[in-house]
Amino acid sequence: MKNYYEVLGISKNSSNTDIKKAAKEKIDQIKIIFATLVNSEQHKNYDIKLSNTSSTARNYYEIIEVNIDASPNEIKNNAKIKINEIKTAFNILSDYKQRKQYDLELDSATIPKLIITNDDILSTPHDFPQTPNLETDKCSTCNAVIYQKAEFCHKCGIRHRRPAKKLTLLLLTLFTGGFGIHRFYLGNYLWGTIYLLFFWTFIPVLISLIEYVIFLFKSSDKIEESYEAHESTVAIVMILPVLLFFGRITLPIMIPAYWDYASKTKVVEAILLLENSKLIVEKHIQKTGTFPSTNELKAIGIITSGTYVSDIESNVQQNYLQATMNNNASVVTGKTIRITYENPNDWKCGPGFPNGINSDYLPYNCR
Questions:
Q1: What is the pLDDT of residue 234?
Q2: Range of the domain at 216
Q3: What is the pTM of this model?
């Protein structure tokens, strides 16, 4: 088992300040070694210096565990491994809980094995001290044996577990407990879903207040040991009520607004067909002295239908053209729009009759 105290060159009773200082010095040392050995000129000078100094001088090759003829890639890889090893040592030893667990594991690994050959000794009332009974698991990355409650793997440094924080748990329970957000934070997805479904009954609110009191009187160490944090799930679940809230407000506004906009774009086709007919009708009046009938509209070049317009009809007595919207026009299907000839270049636009279109769908110059 790797002795991280030896990696950092410190004693077991070192403080966090000592650990931080030692880790920084070790990493700086590795960086200096790397910079020296990968530079051909510095590498050559160092080899000469090493051969002329006493055996007590620091041997860079031994520190990063490479041969004297190692390639730059080997030096680089071993330097990275050493730095990662130092960082792992710092992460474990600077965290009180992990350090405590690591010390137990280190002590149990260094207890000398006792070989008993005399069966009579087994009957003595004085039991040999037992190795601590620790729940273990395997690291998913390097398969090293680690404690189930350990936050980091002592071998590869990969995070194995994210303990829940007391302050975070208290805040979530107090302010979002009625929605079960604190349950999602602890990974209790079933209970969190139940809280979320029944929040409107206010029963989850009462339960969460009781839970808040329970968590309040639990120590931080106990909470970190007993619960894991699932922060990414909390972020997703907290967004859902917000989206539902704003969705409930905005959708009733947005959907009708969309249909109004879509209907107005369809009415534009009818307006354009009628506008294009004005000049043709005025020329016909100048030529014949009469307003064209419905049957004459196509003959004189007027387009009487479109994608959203079923037909355009004429009234020679009242001098108007009236467009009717077809089934493709959805909300305004069957509605009519009318333009009435009064004088040359003077037309009146508005809803038709019967089934006149709502003036809200018409442009301002046609109301």
A1: 65
A2: 166-229
A3: 0.39
